[in-house]
UniProtKB/TrEMBL annotation:
Domain of life: Bacteria
Endpoints of the signal sequence: none
Amidohydrolase-related domain residues: 27-338
Alphabetical list of Gene3D superfamilies matching this protein: Metal-dependent hydrolases
SUPFAM superfamilies, sorted: Metallo-dependent hydrolases (SSF51556)
Name used for this protein in its record: Amidohydrolase-related domain-containing protein
Pfam families found in the cross-reference section: Amidohydro_2
The family this protein is said to belong to: Belongs to the metallo-dependent hydrolases superfamily.
Length: 338
């Protein structure tokens, strides 16, 4: 018997859940867009709206850089501005089309080590191209000594978070009122905490819980990694300039295996397998410094969009109305100035 392709609509539609609390307003502060990527098909406005419009009340979204549609000519340091051009056009259609969630923020990419004069030039160009959507930069630090074991290996440089030029770039973002998003692996959490302490004037956004790995050399070590991860998250949370995105744990490299099954994961499975990561991070940071994130379409290879948000609503059920609103809407609205 031939099963539907992992991540396809046919595969995802095998698990259909009714949306919980469908009127609750939500901002999804972390998704990507691209024409095509490797064996990934296109994920553009139509695909985004199909997910965000599947039953939950997704009001706004924030695009996070994924090296999409860079310019192919011109100065090397300005080529990433092509991503801002690309997203600005789709965001304009999301506002004018009236058919779904509005793409209300853009976080781009540039090398933060390039020096203040050139960095200011790039940031100004990003802001101009993004047509009012520019909110910050993600220059990810993700680096692992065994990248061949990873489905999505990071491109971070060795020692990036301790690099003086990099820290100067992150500090400049704060002075200019921009945020810094990051993505790294669990063993890099202490280095990220040191970065956060070094740049107290910049709001740092910790994506994907610091990505606890569960494949390759990390397979079979989930509980040991979780124990160290708990301590590291406690240390990061002591930095008041850091906010946490809660999601992105369903990537293949997290090792839960949902991307290799005949059926996608349900919301109950996510809560059972991953709830402790969510609860610990919320306990450490507090709801006012936490925001739920879908990380679609990457996590689409593990579960449907409706199931992800149902799981978040199950996890959030025990918190007050104000605390729930913060995690679903208010924190993202504040941090990304939406």
């Amino acid at each position: 018997m031939t099963h539907p392709a992992i991540g396809s609509d046919a595969w995802l539609h095998q698990v259909r859940e009714q949306p919980i609390d469908p009127e609750r307003p939500i901002i999804d502060p972390h998704h990507h867009l691209w024409h095509a990527r490797g064996d990934w098909g296109p994920y553009l406005l139509g695909q985004l709206w199909a997910d965000t419009g599947a039953g939950h009340n997704i009001r706004k979204t924030v695009f996070i850089e994924c090296r999409a549609s860079y310019r192919t000519d011109g100065p090397e340091h300005l080529r990433s501005v092509g991503e801002a051009d690309f997203v600005a056009g789709i965001a304009r259609a999301s506002r004018e089309g009236g058919g779904g969630a509005e793409i209300a923020g853009f976080v781009g990419h540039t090398d933060l080590r390039q020096g203040e004069a050139q960095l200011r030039e790039v940031l100004a160009a990003q802001a101009d191209a993004a047509q009012g959507l520019f909110r910050g930069i993600r220059h990810a630090g993700a680096r692992d000594p065994n990248p061949e074991a990873l489905t999505i290996p990071g491109r971070g440089s060795e020692g990036l978070y301790a690099d003086a030029d990099f820290r100067a770039g992150v500090a400049l973002l704060g002075r200019l009122g921009h945020t810094y998003d990051t993505w790294h692996y669990h063993h890099q959490n202490p280095a990220f905490a040191a970065l956060a302490r070094a740049v107290p004037g910049t709001t740092l956004v910790l994506d994907h819980f610091g990505t606890p790995l569960g494949v390759g050399a990390y397979a079979g070590q989930r509980d040991a990694i979780f124990s160290q991860w708990q301590r590291d998250i406690e240390e990061i949370a002591r930095c008041p300039n850091v906010v946490a995105k809660l999601g992105g744990l369903a990537m293949p490299d997290n090792g839960f295996g949902w991307d290799r099954r005949a059926l996608p994961a349900s919301s109950d499975e996510l809560v059972e397998a991953q709830g402790r990561y969510y609860r610990h991070t919320i306990e450490c940071f507090g709801p006012q410094r936490c925001m739920f994130e879908s990380n679609f379409p990457v996590d689409r290879r593990s579960l449907p969009y409706v199931s992800y948000w149902n799981a978040m609503k199950k996890i959030a059920k025990g918190y007050s109305a104000d605390e729930q609103h913060a995690m679903f809407h208010g924190t993202a609205e504040r941090v990304y100035r939406l």
